[in-house]
Amino acid sequence: MKVMTVVGARPEFIQTAPVSKTIRERGHTEILVHTGQHYDANMSDVFFADLDLPQPEIYLGVGSGSHAGQTGQMMIHLEPVMEAERPDWVLVYGDTNSTVAASLTAAKLGLPLAHIEAGLRSFDRAMPEEINRVVTDHLSDILFAPTAAAVRNLEREGLAAGVRQVGDVRVDVTLGLVEGARARQERLLSGLGLGRGEPFALATIHRPVNTDDAGHLSQIVETFNTLDLPVVLPVHPRLRKMMAAFGLRFAGNVRATDPAGYLDMIALLDACTIVITDSGGLQKEAYMLRRPTVTVRDTTEWIETVEAGWNRLCDTAPDAFRAAVSAALAPPPAAHPDFYGTPGVSERLCVVMETERR
Question: Is 28 noted as a catalytic residue in this protein?
């Protein structure tokens, strides 16, 4: 079996690690294609090193650009690659521009498409990611749904054939690496001026709705600056750029750092008290490691974490934001439902591709 895996952004690097390993260990050929969507060393190279990912067989080097421009350039570069290789499966992850570009190109060429993280919905079409995931699902031959809620979303859209609920790939990654990541905690916390066991919030902010709006970003910064606990904030390049553009600065309680590698993030997540984020992946990882979360968004694709009481949605208004943080600092719910399945997800989805190849 020949699989062409197309990745380009941080969330995809994380998820492809156990799947690529499984595909290759089972004796199949994988062609790993990196579009170049994330090209900064802290957003790309470090994940290949941390997760022991094989180096891409093909690097497209598309880089940044508008959504349409970036997606179009990816399709132009992907088409001859897919034509030359004619894989049994084109495998894509999540909801990035790399995902939708590979999906559209595979569909135009009549190549079988498998989508990991199928069926996620925020029901907010203003999010580019929502458009990407809907389009990809409707083009896919196999839809690997991580949760029962994702399966129901697909059924509502008339997508039943090809849906396989195998669990969430991040179960294999996050739970498999947390023990090893703990060895990094003392060094990381000491470098941040924090003692072991000292309460702190781990935060990430990167979505344009939060970073590119001066009003929203100034409210987020105000709230972080006035919290009564330290905030550890690995700074996404977009956040850094817009902070400078708007003349915003963090107070001393905010420990702003360079973007963190995956093992460092897991170590910090395991050590933190609460999470504050607008990231989809971090919401889910926080739930897996039982860390209460405040999501600075109106919607989430992981609605089950909200319904279970482990995640709170909030807008950027400081009073509402601080109230959500205070609620997250209260004792968490006793119940912690197993939404995301058990380890072995990579093996299960690989078996499906083996048995359903054309």
Answer: no
- Cβ neighbours of residue 346 under 8 Å, at least 6 residues apart? 18, 19, 21, 22, 169, 172
d(CA 186, CA 168): 29
Each residue's pLDDT tens digit, 76-126: 999 999 999 999 999 999 999 999 999 999 999 999 999 999 999 999 888
CATH number of the domain where residue 349 is located: 3.40.50.2000
Alpha carbon distance 116, 341 (integer Å): 14
Cα 282 to Cα 316: distance, rounded to the nearest angstrom: 18
Spatial contact of 204 and 237, defined as CB atoms under 8 Å apart: no
Q: Give me the domain span that covers residue 308.
A: 178-328
| DSSP-derived secondary structure for 271-300 | H-SEEEE--HHHHHHHHHTT--EEE-SS--
Residue 84, burial from CB neighbour count under 10 angstroms (0-12, 13-18, 19+): exposed
User: Using CA of residue 285, residue 286, residue 287, residue 288, what is the dihedral sign?
Assistant: positive
Question: Does residue 303 sit in the same domain as residue 258?
Answer: yes
Burial class (CB in 10 A: 0-12, 13-18, 19+), 348: middle
Q: Residue 40's pLDDT is what?
A: 55
Q: Give pLDDT, residue 110.
A: 97
Are 219 and 282 found together in one domain?
A: yes
User: 0.85 exceeded by the pTM?
Assistant: yes
Considering 206, 216, 236, 336, which one is annotated as catalytic?
206
Q: Within this chain, do residues 227 and 100 fall inside the same structural domain, yes or no?
A: no
The structure tokens 């034509």 sit at 83
Question: CA–CA separation, 80 vs 59, rounded Å?
Answer: 13
Over residues 174-209, the pLDDT tens digits come to 998 999 999 999 999 999 999 989 999 999 999 999
